[in-house]
């Protein structure tokens, strides 16, 4: 991953994109997109360890020219900032309605001609012993690929790496995802969530 480069959407196509990339360069950050981005996909973002990750997401969205929707806690969408967050792609999530959320997102994929959904699988900025699997079930249900988004604070690069079409073998697919994120450093490495399934999500072994 090389800093301050874009592998897709060269050159910047809008004034907003130029401004976002310029702001990123002033902060020492670059954008790297290693795979074409389909109109419909789930973009996971890791490792999520800091509120600053939101700025990295905005650099990817506006600097990389990646139009996408992103999910966040519903409490952040209350006035006065709620309308602004929705305008820049935010989708509020009520964690108590997680199963309904997966179904709702699958329906949106079926209804919309373009829908790129960004999710942080760790679900928290604090250390977690496993990833939440909602992103996987959304992608599987909608039959869309999972793209590995990241903010590497060591290299100061935000970007999108490989794409994975979920096979239904969630344990094997998690191995592929785990291998990619092993080389990505979040802002606070001690908070990296483990790229693993919760014990009750592990497939039965026979």
Give a description of the structure.
By secondary structure, the protein is α/β, with parallel strands linked by helices. The protein has one domain. The chain contains six helices and seven strands; from the N terminus they run H-E-E-H-E-H-E-H-E-H-E-E-H. The protein has helices at residues 15-26, 53-63, 82-87, 98-111, 134-142, 170-181; strands at 30-33, 40-46, 69-73, 90-93, 115-119, 146-152, 157-164. Strands 1-7-6-2-5-3-4 form a seven-stranded mixed beta sheet, with helices on both faces. Helix 1 crosses helix 2 (53-63) and helix 4 packs parallel to helix 5. The longest helix has 14 residues, at 98-111. It is globular and about 45 Å long. Mean pLDDT is 85; it is low at 1-11.
């Amino acid at each position: 991953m090389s800093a301050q480069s874009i592998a897709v959407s060269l050159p910047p196509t809008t004034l907003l994109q130029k401004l976002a990339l310029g702001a990123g360069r002033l902060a020492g950050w670059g954008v790297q997109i290693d795979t074409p981005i389909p109109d419909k996909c789930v973009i996971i973002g890791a490792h999520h360890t800091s509120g600053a990750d939101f700025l990295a997401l905005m650099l990817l969205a506006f600097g990389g020219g990646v139009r996408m929707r992103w999910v966040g806690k519903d409490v952040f969408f209350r006035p006065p900032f709620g309308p602004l967050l929705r305008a820049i792609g935010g989708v509020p999530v009520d964690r108590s309605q997680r199963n309904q959320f997966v179904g709702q997102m699958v329906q949106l994929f079926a209804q919309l001609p373009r829908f790129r959904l960004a999710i942080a699988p760790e679900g928290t900025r604090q250390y977690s012993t496993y990833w939440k699997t909602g992103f996987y079930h959304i992608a599987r249900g909608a039959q869309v690929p999972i793209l590995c988004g990241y903010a590497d604070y060591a290299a100061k690069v935000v970007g999108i790496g490989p794409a994975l079409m979920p096979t239904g073998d969630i344990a094997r697919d998690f191995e592929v995802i785990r291998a990619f994120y092993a080389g990505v450093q979040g802002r606070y490495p001690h908070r990296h969530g483990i790229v693993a399934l919760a014990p009750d999500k592990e497939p039965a072994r026979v």
